[in-house]
Amino acid sequence: MRNRIACTLVVAGLLALMGTSSALATGFSIYEAGSRATALGGAFTATADDGSAMFYNAAGLSFIEGQTFDVNAMFIRPDFNFGGQLSKTDDLQIGESESQTFPVPGLYYTNNGGGQVAFGVGVYAPFGLGVKWQDPENWVGRRISHDVSIETVYVTPAISYKANDQLALAFGLDIAHQNLNLKKFTPEPDFGTNAIETEIDGSSDINITPSLGLMYRPDDKLSLGVMYHFKKTMKYNEQDATLTNVSPTGATWAPTVIAGLGGSAQSISSELNLPDILSIGLAYRLTEKLRAEVNYVRFGWSAFEKLEMDFTNDNLDQTIHFNYEDSYQIRVGAEFDINEKYSLMGGYVRDNTPQPLIAVSPLLPDSDRNDYSIGVMYRGEKFDINVSYMAVVGEDRTNIENGEPVRNTTDYPFGTYKAVANIVGMGFTYHF
């Protein structure tokens, strides 16, 4: 029994950081770095005319006049549902996530004095979110996760050089820090009762990588933009893992197992790769009042091939392979100027998941998605206000093929996952 529980705890540690990979699938990258860009479906690489250019394309700094300060607040509410069977002989199993709203900041300062060099700095969160399942003690996926969250914050200073009236080139530094937390139950192997709760709580080292941008505006109608954020490797050194005895009253074996593993307090070291991001955008003013943009966005998720875990107890060390695939998005946005002060915006996104079927689990199941956005913007003399809404509709995803689960283990409930998310954004820009 002790060996079986020990093996389960190894898997617990591995899956804890695997949960971050699921959280970081393309559908859960947070591409909503600003309210105006979100209203346009994130099709903003060739526009980038506010502070969120620090993420979407820093070369836009060269075309923003004067000094600006942008404050954005994006509120993201994801909801997950599961329906399926633990095995062919079990009754129907269902699950539903708790209602959670994740606030995502976007703070930016830009400065363009009219010369060849413009600069700015931004604080935003391009990767994150999580899921907390209801009734965690009985949730069918509790062996994998009943509560997982991750947040990644970037601070990006950047400069943009305007080579001529039409062309600008930008260089920035993405300074990133990441936090993760995961909770799951390990059952007693023979009876299935919850025996040990594992919690992994960690913070990464700070990581610094470059980012690049280009913008070309040959006339007042056409704009071409390119942005690139390099791949990151987030390193976790000796992070906390806590094992807590939750076995039924009178059971004495769980503390013995925990002691045999080295005690309740464990530590884990690992590395987690974040993908590089490439966006290519084209914007065109169709009429005096109507402007449209289309972006092709590629995420280099193949960088997340495997995860090597180094535990305090060397006997628990292990490597798990994920084989994520590169993925892409098509983003389309349009803006209609009602008058000099008000504009209406709308957008659509086709988002293709990089997550292979074998990795679909309660940690954060991902799927291909269709996103729909709308927004309105008010332009004052010294300030702009914009409000946006986006509906993220995930396609149903099942981890069953030809009537069989893709993973041959009862730890992974097999069935169909459904996911939707609602994103409300508000932005305020002040022009100095």
H/E element order: HHHEEEEEEEEEEHEEEEEEEEEEEEE
Enter the CATH topology name: Porin
The number of strands is 23
In round numbers, the mean pLDDT is: 85
Please name the CATH architecture.
Beta Barrel
**Low-pLDDT windows of residues:** 1-27
Count of helical stretches: 4
The CATH class is: Mainly Beta
CATH superfamily: Outer membrane protein transport protein (OMPP1/FadL/TodX)
Helicity level, as a percent range?
A: under 10%
Q: In order across it, which strands form the biggest sheet? A: 1-3-4-5-6-8-9-12-13-16-17-18-19-23
Distance between the termini: 68 Å
Characterize the largest beta sheet: strand count, sense, and whether it forms a barrel: 14 strands, antiparallel, barrel
- Amount of beta strand: over 45%
Round the Cα radius of gyration to an integer and report it.
23 Å
Based on the structure, what is the oligomeric state of the protein chains?
single chain
Secondary-structure content class: mainly beta
What is the count of structural domains? 1
What would you note in describing this structure?
- The protein is mainly beta.
- The protein has one domain (about 1-430): Porin (Beta Barrel), CATH 2.40.160.60.
- About 10% of the residues lie in helices and about 55% in strands.
- It is built from 4 helices and 23 strands.
- It has helices at about 1-25, 35-40, 55, 255-260; strands spanning about 65-85, 90-95, 100-110, 115-130, 145-160, 165-185, 195-205, 205-215, 220-230, 230-245, 265-275, 275-285, 290-300, 305-310, 320, 325-335, 340-350, 370-380, 385-395, 395-400, 400, 405, 415-430.
- Strands 1-3-4-5-6-8-9-12-13-16-17-18-19-23 form a 14-stranded antiparallel β-barrel. Strands 21-22 form a two-stranded antiparallel sheet.
- It is elongated and about 75 Å long.
- Residues about 1-25 have low confidence and may be disordered.
